[in-house]
């Protein structure tokens, strides 16, 4: 029996191979890795006895060029194309498809049968994708159908990306071809000495150079740490692209070097530099990048959401989006209001991406998730670390939960934002950031410092309506959720039935877009056919309604006295906030002294 290695470019394909192999019972190992991550997996397994590798698209081509094991490229079948196009049937925007000749020709034919007008973008290699996407953007294409890399690039340019997911029939055919190749071919395996030595040492992020300091291999983790693309490093001198990673000393001295807690933008990591020797000669060097243990504020690095990807069909949300677009290049602080799950963070990302600040970092600090000491450290820095404003300099700081800030932190933050400078161990540093704050509703502050900060941050105000007030958007939201979930779960769902859609439109969605996404994901998981049927929707939505009903009942005994109910409320909030009295006092709108007094009183109630 052939020993097969499957490297799936996306999780859904991994799961589909797993399900098929439960029936076929082949000697098969399945892993997930796209592009160079897939190549890294292939290299790591090159000498483990596998006869054939199965992958798809660009990942299969990259692996085939670099490893000695035969590679089977999973074909995109007509059924795969049909499922993707059926999902878009009835969509009014401009649709493009990007792939190689055989796929584009098949899609054109199927699109004509379905009455879907497609604009084709033929490519011959991966290097053509970026320019083809730019051309599609100029032609006002809103949706791009294609493989993992083309849809990812399309999303980076603000389009919707629909991944052509592989179906069961294509997977079975690929396994049969792989077994045939394994039977008739007896390949001798060759080794790339430089990459093999690097892989033997690989731990986290890795950058490998030759003896002249030119980058010959870089993995995705290293590119993430350095906030760049792998292509920006490959075949360039590392010292020119990332000066502090200069490996010249290691190559000359043949001695390893280590550095702790390197701050680079919003990332922090440790570095080890190691010379690579073979037969007594230095043939290159490798830099290992390890994540530092201490938490960092959340950062999208390159926020992925653009205005074109935000569904806005209803009149109310169209006006909101227009207002948001109008202020993208303003430096005035902005507050985005909206119920939980309405997409406030996504809108903040879109504003950043549309602005002149888009080349610079977008840093999100969720104040609710951190202790008071940690919030203070992130905002103002401490020995060895810069403040959040230094790390986001030139870009956007997104503050979530400013209504939980203690008074003394609010006062210091206001002072710094007014002056646009901060004191550090190295002296006074000026910064330039735009601040976007996220709140569920307009707070009522009794404290002067927090009230003053809130007024300063309220330069512009944007209110996102709840989903129950923009139901015209539900159908398109479902469409894009299904497209994403298909890629993640290996499903081929093409839509919902009219009866199912009716139930979606009748429900109020108290959890808004986030709740809708969760529901669609669960329905896709439970669905066995191409459509989400009414029975599946009713099952999932019955659970939602039960949860909503349970949440609507108070957990407090209203037969108690007012003092007893107040004591119960205080103790419940204390549990929710892990007994952090500053956060509890902020939620109750009282100072800590008053809270302490009430806690003492409640002990006797």
DSSP summary, beta strand count: 23
Calculate Rg over CA atoms.
27 Å
CATH architecture of the largest domain: 3-Layer(aba) Sandwich
Largest sheet: 6 strands, mixed
- Residue ranges: pLDDT <50 for 5 or more in a row? 187-193, 293-300
Task: Please count the helical segments.
Answer: 25
The CATH topology of the largest domain comes to: Rossmann fold
Helix content: 40-55%
Percent strand equals 15-25%
So what's the oligomer here?
single chain
Folded structure, characterized:
GO terms for molecular function: ATP binding; phosphorelay response regulator activity; sequence-specific DNA binding. Residues 310-525 form the Sigma-54 factor interaction domain. One of its GO terms (biological process) is regulation of DNA-templated transcription. Keywords: ATP-binding, Nucleotide-binding, Transcription, Transcription regulation. By secondary structure, this protein is of the alpha/beta class. The chain has six domains: 3-74 and 168-184, Rossmann fold; 91-162, PrpR receptor domain-like (Rossmann fold); 193-291, PAS domain (Beta-Lactamase), CATH 3.30.450; 298-463, 3-Layer(aba) Sandwich (Rossmann fold); 467-552, Helicase, Ruva Protein, domain 3 (Orthogonal Bundle), CATH 1.10.8; 562-602, Arc Repressor Mutant, subunit A. The strands form six sheets. The chain has a six-stranded mixed sheet. It is globular.
Give the key terms.
alpha/beta, Rossmann fold, Beta-Lactamase, six-stranded mixed sheet, 25 helices, globular
